[in-house]
UniProtKB/TrEMBL annotation, chain A:
PANTHER family named in the record: PEPTIDYL-GLYCINE ALPHA-AMIDATING MONOOXYGENASE, SMP-30_GLUCONOLACTONASE_LRE-LIKE REGION DOMAIN-CONTAINING PROTEIN
Protein name, as recorded: Tat (Twin-arginine translocation) pathway signal sequence
Signal peptide: 1-28
Gene3D superfamilies on file: TolB, C-terminal domain
InterPro entries for this protein: 6-blade_b-propeller_TolB-like, TAT_signal
Alphabetic keyword roster: Glycoprotein, Signal
UniProt keyword Glycoprotein, yes or no: yes
Organism: Zhouia amylolytica
GO cellular component: extracellular region
TrEMBL record, chain B:
Name of the protein this chain belongs to: Chitobiase/beta-hexosaminidase C-terminal domain-containing protein
Superkingdom of this protein's organism: Bacteria
One Pfam family this sequence matches: CHB_HEX_C_1
Gene3D superfamilies: Galactose-binding domain-like
Sequence ranges assigned to domain GH29D-like beta-sandwich in this UniProt record: 52-108
UniProt cross-references to InterPro entries, sorted A to Z: GH29D-like_dom
Length: 349, 270
């Protein structure tokens, strides 16, 4: 009986159009008539291009693809911890335009800063225990060491920064997500202004403060979004470091918040309770802090304002680590521990 | 003649394209993607009367098929349509199918017959304050733990553990079953060694079984495991020593340090 329905669905997909076919498939909503898989929910649904950005690993290898940003010229800039070429610069079609960087063995966080019309990058390196500011073509302009004089670090090795975010005035914040879990606030000259957070399970503390992002969607009330990845929680803080609120995302190990238009996009490293470790997916949250789409995972469902546990449903993403969203709403996905694969591009449908 | 050559050329080109399957279509095709194995939730895994088992994979047009005899399910196996009442011990296996996507791997769950009812359980070492479960009775409460080591059904330790179990009378026991967790991402390793002794008077103990468990390798998935130690002895008192891994292997961030181990249940089987 069941195999009959299955073959019927297969046949209707092969047929060219027709009202019955269309309604049958629209109920599935995961497949289109070309048999391209479509992932995601509600208005955020995507086709998947696995071959985007593929290069010859003998010439341009990657290890973990950690993070991706788009620069002012529209180029896609990706950071890997492979020291043959730490930074790869692509165009949106996936063609390699440039590559540089051999000194970032723990290259992890990548953030774009714009100063007087010029692009700069903030790179966090958890193996060097440093944050490095460079020009877009890799010239080092500032290096920040472990803030030993704060008294929060017994030795520099305890400092393993994972992410940065930059304000319009040049102030920036560093999240020490693999270290002692502090958030460090600096002015544009690199002078330390404030320290908050720290390791712990209190509201204002973190386990795995992996990502940080300046959120000025509400112009009157700008704030910081900080992921507590192991705890499956996004926390909001004031720019002064005061804890504001928490947004739980049960089951989702969210890496870093990325704001595009009015929404926040996340790579989810893995599903908390999956049997397979390579159980990652993506997550999109609207401006009301509601999860609206989880490409590669269960549809987000709220019961009594509580989000149901999220988990991977198809074996597509392995360990997504960051997303970058371009002006076409296409998403570029960098993956950690995925067998040295290049980024994946998703096209919105 | 010239036309024919051109035609051949075209066919060759298109032939090449089909060979490079993934390059023909710009976008990933459904048939190249596999479903995730169904998630299984059981009310309890040690059956004293009945257990309820739910399977789910919330993805459109998925069908789940299952077996209850330990064999691998296929599309001819019964279809899962709702929670299953489980009254007999055994292995239940589930697999998800989809009209376009590849079928999933198999997820399984094992139900155990409840063992000899233990009169009293005690622990010679301290209960670890971080992961006490519900106290030492956690180990004999017929409740298996979930994938979450902090769900209250697991006891966690960073040292050797010695458990003493007193039976209501001298019972013939065929085997001891111990449930443990392997989750190296959370620094939880399998116990390294388990030894079982039996006594009639709580004084003179005789070793009746011992097992060494292989240490996890890099990349091993998180898993809930059981080890069965055959004993085939009559006895009123059982003493079980569960030793933790004393040196985490080189591939792990915790290399050289001693490991945590987590135990959820001890069953003395008739």
């Amino acid at each position: 009986m069941q195999s009959g329905r299955r073959s019927f669905l297969k046949k209707s997909a092969l047929a060219t159009g027709g009202l019955l076919t269309f309604s049958q498939l629209s109920s599935a909503f995961s497949i289109d008539r070309n048999n391209d898989i479509i992932i995601g929910h509600n208005n955020h649904r995507y086709k998947v291009n696995l071959n985007w950005g593929d290069l010859d690993p003998a010439k341009t290898p990657v290890k973990d693809c950690h993070e991706i940003v788009q620069d002012s010229q529209g180029r896609i800039v990706m950071l890997t911890n492979h020291t043959k070429n730490n930074v790869l610069i692509y165009d949106k079609s996936g063609k390699l335009l440039d590559k540089w960087g051999t000194e970032y063995p723990g290259g992890h966080g990548l953030t774009l800063a714009k100063e007087n019309g010029e692009d700069f990058l903030f790179i966090t390196d958890y193996e060097r225990h440093q944050v490095i500011k460079t020009t877009i073509d890799g010239k080092v302009v500032m290096t920040l060491d472990c803030p030993l004089d704060t008294g929060h670090y017994a030795q520099k090795e305890a400092y393993k920064p994972t992410e940065t975010t930059v304000l319009d005035n040049g102030d920036f914040y560093i999240a020490d997500g693999y270290g002692n879990q502090f958030i460090l606030h600096y002015n544009h000259k690199g002078e330390l202004l404030n320290v908050f957070g720290g390791r712990g399970r209190e509201e204002h503390q973190f386990i795995n403060a992996h990502g940080i992002c300046y959120d000025n969607r509400d112009k009157a009330n700008p704030c910081l979004l900080i992921t507590a990845r192991e705890q499956n929680v996004l926390k909001k803080f004031s720019l002064e470091g005061e804890y504001l609120s928490s947004i739980p995302v049960p089951g989702a190990l969210i890496c870093r918040p990325v704001i595009h238009n009015n929404e926040v996009y996340f790579a989810v490293l893995k599903s908390k309770e999956a049997a397979n470790d390579d159980s990652g997916f993506l997550l999109i949250m609207d401006d009301q802090d509601q999860v609206v789409s989880c490409p590669g995972a269960t549809k987000p469902v709220y019961e009594n304002h509580q989000l149901d546990q999220l988990y991977q449903t198809i074996r597509l993403f392995q360990h997504p680590h960051d997303v970058c969203v371009d002006e076409d709403d296409s998403i570029y996905v960098a993956q950690w521990n995925s067998g040295q694969t290049y980024p994946i591009k998703l096209t919105r449908v | 003649m010239k036309n024919l050559v051109v035609l051949l050329g075209l066919i060759l080109i298109s032939g090449c394209k089909i060979d490079k399957d993934s390059k023909v279509n710009k976008y990933l095709q459904s048939e190249a993607v596999a479903l995730v194995a169904p998630t299984l939730v059981a009310s309890n895994l040690v059956i004293d009367s009945v257990a309820t088992l739910k399977a789910s994979l919330p993805y459109p047009d998925v069908e789940i098929h299952y077996t209850s005899d330990g064999t691998a399910p296929d599309e001819t196996s019964p279809e899962y349509t709702g929670p299953i009442k489980v009254t007999n011990p055994g292995v239940y296996s589930f697999k998800a199918y989809h009209p376009f996507l590849q079928s999933s791997e198999i997820s399984t769950v094992t139900f155990y017959k409840s063992g000899i009812k233990v009169r009293e359980v005690s622990m010679l070492n301290e209960i670890n304050a971080k992961y006490p479960g519900n106290g030492v009775n956690t180990l004999i409460d017929n409740q298996k733990g979930s994938n979450s080591y902090s769900d209250g059904r697991w006891m966690g330790f960073d040292e050797d553990v010695v458990v003493e179990l007193e039976m209501p009378s001298e019972n013939k026991a065929t085997k001891v079953i111990i449930g443990y967790m392997s989750a190296t991402g959370a620094w939880i390793f399998s116990p390294a060694k388990i030894t079982v002794w039996v006594s009639d008077d709580k004084q003179d103990y005789t070793q009746v079984g011992m097992v060494e468990i292989e240490t996890e390798k890099k990349g091993d998935d998180t898993a809930l495991k059981n080890v069965e130690i055959p004993i085939n002895r009559t006895g009123k008192y059982f003493k079980i020593k569960i030793e933790n891994l004393k040196e985490i292997p080189q591939w792990h961030d915790g290399k050289g340090t001693s490991a945590w181990h987590f135990i959820d249940e001890i069953i003395i089987d008739e």
